[in-house]
Amino acid sequence: MAEYQILTIFAAFALAYSLIASRLEKTPINGALVYVLAGMLIGPDLLDLIDLSIEGETVSQLAEIALAICLFTDSSNANLTVLRRVEAIPVRLLLLGLPLTIALGMGIAWLIFGELGFFEVALIATMLAPTDAALGKAVVTNPVVPAKVRESLNVESGLNDGICVPVILFFIALAAGSVEASESASLVFQLPLKVIGIGLVTGLVLAVVGGFGLRTSAARGWVAGTWLQIPIIALALLCFGLAQWLGGSGFIAAFVGGLTFGALTKQHKEKFLTAAEGTADAVAMVTWFAFGTMALGILLSGFSWRILVYALLSLTVVRMLPVFLCLIGKGLKRDTLLFIGWFGPRGLASIVFVVMVIAEKLPGNDTIVAVVVWTIILSVLLHGLSANPLASLYGARADARGGEV
């Protein structure tokens, strides 16, 4: 009967939140923050109505599905005209900023957690390097933020989690001792090429085929009504699932697939995406709610001043300094650099990585998990509360400059 209890509570929360969701979206208290807090209240450490295990696959699978759908829909909505003008910004954030973030995160973790080995420190830094497309949606879809900044953040968050997957797998293999030192050099080149390459090709091919099919069906009136809700979700999950099945990055496949689909189906994509966004929001809500039910116990049992300090540094210095360094020479205003640097939320991808690491039972697991969970929760709180106010403030400043960023 326990599963029906969980279903009842999930459904009751979803119904209650949906009744006031549009109103809450205009306030700092909305989205993932509400879902997580509700999950904590319902979880085993307070009301004890739901008791999920982070060691299980449920939360990881929910997070993967939510992130895949979000990546696909967000990239489908990308403004390619703007993106072509600003492509150098996300390219720098990914090729320079991401490695710098991992390196700086490793250095600080090495100083704070001296008892951990090199690979455990590297895992912490890499698990917290990617930004979250779903958690950053309040910013990248806010029209008051200049399009140049929105598209840059959207592309960065869409690709950095997929890029980090082979890095995570590499460090897990070395930390678990499943790879000999002599094999590590070849692995460091083979994994990214395989994981990223398969993701790119899978997303591109499926989006071309699926986009052609949907465009043809829409033009002939073969798909309408309630069926409009299904194709986008199905195509997003097809891109993700096939890429993962083939050993590639499903996250990259979902993002590239969405970007390609959006470019190929300009005429009909809006009605498909509008119908799909409700499903995407629902999956994200359930994921954050489920995460909240298990997060409070980890926060309480794993708390220490070192973990709190690292989590705060990860959200500020470790993220913002590489952003400043990699965008030197792009002529961006200081408030633009601060805005891009601050809105690097950590969320669904880091949750997936936590479950991956737990499954391997690595040395230092308790510390690794506590650091990542504390950082995610602080990100949900701080980025959730600041998204709307800071977006409005920054948008007004940019508008006063005639849109100059």
UniProtKB/TrEMBL annotation:
Recorded GO MF terms: antiporter activity
Membrane topology: Multi-pass membrane protein
Organism encoding this protein: Novipirellula artificiosorum
Predominant location: membrane
Gene3D superfamilies given in the database record: 1.20.1530.20
Protein location: Cell membrane
Protein's UniProt name: K(+)/H(+) antiporter NhaP2
GO CC, alphabetical: plasma membrane
UniProt-listed PANTHER family: CNH1P, NA(+)/H(+) ANTIPORTER 1
Record GO biological process: proton transmembrane transport
Pfam (any one): Na_H_Exchanger
Keywords, in A-Z order: Antiport, Cell membrane, Ion transport, Membrane, Transmembrane, Transmembrane helix, Transport
Domain Cation/H+ exchanger transmembrane: 15-391
Phylogenetic placement of the source organism: Bacteria, Pseudomonadati, Planctomycetota, Planctomycetia, Pirellulales
